Amino acid sequence: MEKTEKPPYSVLFKNTIREKPWLFIIAYYIYSYPGLSIEELKNTSGLKIDVVKRGVWWLKKVGVVEERNNKYYISTTYSKALESTILNTCRLGDTFILLLDEVYIVYRVTSGRIQYWSIPLKYYEEIAYYERATSGSYTLSNIAQILGVDLGTAKKVHRLIDLIKKCWQRSNK
Predict the structure, then answer these.
(1) 101-117 burial string, b = 16+ CB within 10 Å, else e?
(2) Nearest 5°: CA angle at 116, between 73 and 98?
(3) Fewer CB within a 10 Å sphere, N or C end of the chain?
(4) How far apart are CA 164 and CA 78, in angstroms?
(5) Is this prediction's pTM over 0.85?
């Protein structure tokens, strides 16, 4: 019988986030504040207790999180994977921007819940290229026309560009 090799933990973690993007926020807080209880995670993250409990349950199920004495930690097998993912994250208050391979995911923690949406990296790159080339910014209708997308998607691309500019400004201070 042939033994099948497990993919690297970074791939497993990314697959988990692709399937359930909202889990990234829970993992982010456990990584950033190791050793917190469910109640402490709730208070630190601003999330409702049911969201925290469900997120921790899923992360424990896939092996990302370990529990010791009712405190939660990123498992040693996933710590490097999470570290490299967090390097591709910008946090602006209650908003998080994550670059996960070829997709940007924008998260917002609001009213105790996690809202998120995603935009392909190529959309961001194309509009950013045009803005650099013309030294200007584009309207929603311009973005929609250039990318061949609806106005809702164009609005998200525009918002993403603004958020990434804020991330750059913050990191270059």
Answers:
(1) eebbbbbbbeeeebeee
(2) 60
(3) N
(4) 27
(5) yes
Instruction: Name the nearest CA neighbour of 149 among 127, 165, 133.
Output: 127
- CA 87/CA 124 separation, integer angstroms: 19
Q: In this structure, what DSSP letter does residue 29 have?
A: H
No. of H helices and E strands in the chain?
A: 8, 6
Model confidence pLDDT, tens digit, residues 127-141: 999 988 998 888 999
139: left (phi over 0), alpha (psi -120 to 50) or beta: beta
E strand intervals along 30-158: 65-68, 71-74, 89-92, 95-100, 103-110, 113-120
Per 3-state DSSP, the chain is made up of helix, strand and coil in percentages (nearest 5) of 55, 20, 25
